[in-house]
User: Fold PP4R1 phosphatase from Sapayoa aenigma.
Amino acid sequence: EPTVRTELMEQIPPIAIFLQESRPNFPTAFFEYLMPIVVRYLTDVNNQVRKAGQEALLILLEQDLVAQSDIENKVCPILLDLSAPDSDDEYKVEAVNIICKMASMLSRTTVEHMLLPRFCELCSDGKLFQVRKICAANFGDICNAVGQEATERLLIPKFFELCSDSVWGMRKACAECFMAVSYTTSSEVRRSKLSPLFISLISDTCRWVRQAAFQSLGPFISTFANPSSAGLYIREDGTLSIRPPAQDVNSNSCQLSNNITLMSSSALSR
Assistant:
């Protein structure tokens, strides 16, 4: 019964936490018995069971309960199979979604060597716009996960493709994550490549794309500031925050925050 398998998946994380706390008594129980079940249910025929398996996997990764060897030898190969070009459409959409969500929880080396090549392929998936949209919506997180060098070498060309996609929802998603992408690049790439790209979005034929770009204008401008003097930084959740100099915390924070808000509001009202 699918309901039984779904219920089982919901119990896996608390059992894993218990085993982690009792590791001297159960040194290999999780790796030998529970992890294989989670991996198997990622390919279950029932979508509710797969969803429960995906949620359980993310919780386990977030709690750092999955060994690096299991991630590389069991989890990643399954996701790569499910996201392959000839994979079933429903499985592929689910796989790319889980790849994007788990990227921030894995080591940079694992993401760059095992998942990044497939992510780049999926950005150009001509069959399913849903796959490209998931890639566009999570592009900033992937850039943050792999760092500046891989972003500029492999991801920026894909970002250009998505920003000119024929589906306006893709371009809108790119506009919404533009600040996070810009923050990961060097000042030269930001100035010479991303600025003209942003202008194309802010001049887009679709109103919703333009609106999203105008709302990202202030945050994008903020990435040109020197973090050490302006105090701007990106939180783990991808949002822009301000850490002003200690001697002028209140005045600088309010002024800079107001400036960014005014720039965005002014541009949006045009």
